[in-house]
Structures are given as C-alpha cells and as structure tokens.
Specification:
This protein has a domain at about 1-40 and about 85-120 and about 250-325: 3-Layer(bba) Sandwich (FAD/NAD(P)-binding domain), CATH 3.50.50.60. The model has no long low-confidence stretch (mean pLDDT about 95). It has a five-stranded parallel β-sheet, covered by helices on one side. Strands 13-12-11-17 form a four-stranded parallel β-sheet. Helix 1 (about 10-25) packs parallel to helix 6. Helix 1 links the parallel strand 1 and strand 2 (about 30-40). The protein has eight helices and 22 strands. The protein has about 375 residues and is of the alpha/beta class. This is Oxidoreductase ptaL. InterPro entries: FAD/NAD-bd_sf, FAD/NAD-binding_dom. GO terms for molecular function: electron-transferring-flavoprotein dehydrogenase activity; flavin adenine dinucleotide binding.
Length: about 375
C-alpha cells in the first residue's frame, strides 16, 4: 500500500488531499492511504481576516471549520488526520517526525507533500502561528483592541495592509483615526499604476491617512499600553493599536537546510518535487515556485494531485507551467475595490461584487471538498 503524507491544514494541504482522494479511484486500483498532518484542528479562512478583526462582522464559525470532519466520507482505511506539528524530516529514511501532544511520532511515507504554508514575521491575526486555539484568541484580542482604540496604525501597504485599512476605515472612518504606512512611493507597489492610483483614492475617500515613503521602527509600548512608533522622518507617532501586515516566513523549520533557499523556502522543480529529495514535493506558500497567492495555490494543488495519481498508476508525471501573469483582487471597504489581471485593470464593481463576502460561504465546501 502506498502511503501519501500531506503536511498542512490550509488551502494547499486540504485541497490536495481531497483532489487526490476524490479522483484516484478513477485511474487505478492500487491500494493507498492519505495521512494529513496539521498543527491546526480547524481550517482558518484567513482571506476574511481583515474584516474578521472588526467586532460583529464575521461569526467565528465562518472563519473556522474542523478539518477532520470534512474527510469523514473517505473512511479510516483511506484517510487519517493527525493533529500535530512536523519537527523533522528524514528524506533518506522516508520518515516524518511529528510532535503529537508533546510526544515525537514517526510517520513513514512513500510520497510526502509539504503544504505547510507561511506565517507573518510578527504574529498577528492574518495567519495561524501554531494552533487553532491560538489564532482564535488572537482574533478575539484584536476585536477588543479595535473596539477600544481611537487611533490605529496599519504598517505595510501590500494587499493585506490595504484591505485591513479599508475595512477599518469603512467601519470607523468618522470615529477613529486610521493610518496606513507604506515604505514605498505608493500603496500596492509593483502593481499597475492605474491600480495603485485607484486604491489610494479609495482609501483616502474612506478617510485613511496614507503615509508613503515612510519607514516605521519597531514600536515601544508606553506605560499606558499605547504604542509609540518612530517614523523615518523623525516623527513620533503614538497610537492605541499597531497592526503589522508586512512580510511572511515559510513554515519550513522541519525541512533539512540543503533543500531550502536562502530565505527558507523549499526549492522545487517543474514537478513540484523537492530538488534532491525523491518522493518529496512542496506546493503553496512554503515553496519557491510562485507568488504566495490563493489562485496559484489552487492551480498547484490540481497539478500535484493529478501527478500523484499518475505515479500510482505507473505513468510519468507532467511538468507544471508556472504563471508569469500577475493578478490581484482586493476589497477596500465594503463598497469599493480594485484589482488587475496582468496589466489589465479589473473594473471596481466586478471586484466588489466577487469579493463582497470575502468568500466565507466557501469555507465549509472547501473543508469537505464539495466545491472541488
């Protein structure tokens, strides 16, 4: 029996497991079992986190769904869920070491898919940083702090920062001071100029105070609990709530260093196989294949699931063609948004309509595989 072990309870891991389990029986009668290893008991719909930190906007059950229940249709002979954290990988011995309730558990594999995702450089509400209980508590803490704050600064003007500032300003633009700090000359750097211009205008319409070409040093906590930031121009900015949205780090600490690039991302070839590691693959945010964006992860998941089935059927896998086309869509408050496909700017009404709910209705269908 072939044992496929998948690491990660996010989009990459859960989607790949479902796609394989739903389709493998159509192509081969070879015996198999899938084990999904996740440090989170629940799938976190972090796409909606910028709105989720605002009190009363999104109920907890629309942000979190239990993973194991979503795979109940396959039966214990075909699927097993392991709640634990990958701590070590023995490529030669085809063994993964997982910390399960403080105990080192060794799991042998024939194929290993690393879809462990990434985390923010500074822990916050946008990524899980260790457990479902932990990120739930972080969300609740931020909701309380947002409610109490009079002045909020969002540092980092990439998609997460822009969406977060937009959501906050839509709700509180006339009652709280919302500041967005960008280290570059505009927001959404490296996006088409028409998109950055539109985003900036929409933010300003919502009364966001956008500071460009501005760096912020790590904040100092004052005796009253407020945060003091020193900006690159020397200005001291005192705020009630500091929300960092810049930078992600791959969750690859368990992977031997020879398989990582200088930034810690897992190096893969055109088949998503980890370079130099037979039978080991990596997709999504943890790999060096494409930008860490949802639609790229979806494409990668489809491809790796098909290749796994081909391998079990004794057929050669097919190479993946990475996309050279940049794309983005983001909500800026509930009534505006912008985005692009390549150099083509998407109409704001289209982005707003598509992303109106931040896709929370797709959470249950993602976890149980019914939308794949």
């Amino acid at each position: 029996m072939k044992h496929i072990v998948i690491i990660g309870g996010g989009f990459a891991g859960v989607s790949t497991a479902h796609r394989f389990l739903k389709n493998v029986g159509k192509s081969t009668t070879a015996p198999y079992k899938v084990t999904l290893v996740s440090r989170d008991s629940h799938f976190f719909w972090n796409i909606a986190a910028p709105r989720g930190i605002i009190p009363g906007q999104i109920p907890e059950e629309k942000l979190f769904q239990p993973i194991a229940e979503g795979f109940s249709q396959y039966g214990p002979d075909k699927f097993e869920f392991v709640l634990g954290t990958a701590t070590d990988l023995d490529v030669g011995g085809k063994t993964l070491v997982v910390d399960v309730d403080g105990k080192a558990t060794r799991i042998s594999y024939d194929y290993l898919i690393i879809g462990s995702g990434s985390r923010t450089k500074i822990p916050g509400p946008f990524k899980s940083d260790g457990s479902t209980d932990g990120v739930k508590q972080t969300i609740h803490d931020f909701q309380e702090r947002v409610k109490a704050a009079k002045t909020i600064v969002v540092v980092g003007a990439g998609p997460t920062g822009v969406e977060t500032a937009g959501e906050l300003a839509f709700e509180y633009g006339t009652s709280k001071k919302i500041i967005l700090i960008s280290g570059g000359p505009t927001v959404l750097e490296n996006r088409p100029a028409s998109v950055t211009k539109t985003a900036l205008k929409q933010l300003e319409t919502l009364n966001v105070d956008v500071r460009v070409n501005t760096k912020a040093k790590d904040p100092v906590t004052l005796p009253d609990g407020k945060k003091e930031l020193t900006l690159s121009g020397g200005e001291k900015l005192v705020v009630d709530l500091y929300i960092p949205t810049f930078g992600v780090l791959p969750n690859s600490s368990f992977v031997p260093s020879q398989y990582l690039d200088s930034n810690g991302f897992v190096q893969v070839d055109q088949y998503f196989q980890v370079k130099g590691a037979e039978g080991v693959f990596a997709i999504g945010d943890v790999s060096d294949s494409e930008a860490p964006q949802f639609w790229f992860v979806e494409k990668q998941s489809v491809h790796i699931a098909k290749n796994l089935i081909l391998s079990l059927s004794g057929k050669a896998p097919t190479p993946y063609k990475a996309s050279a086309t940049g794309m983005m869509g983001l909500q800026i408050g509930k009534n505006s948004g912008t985005g692009h496909f390549g150099n083509f700017k998407l109409p704001g009404f289209l982005v707003k309509t598509i992303r109106k709910t931040l896709f929370v209705e797709n959470l249950p269908k993602t976890v149980d595989g019914s939308m794949l």
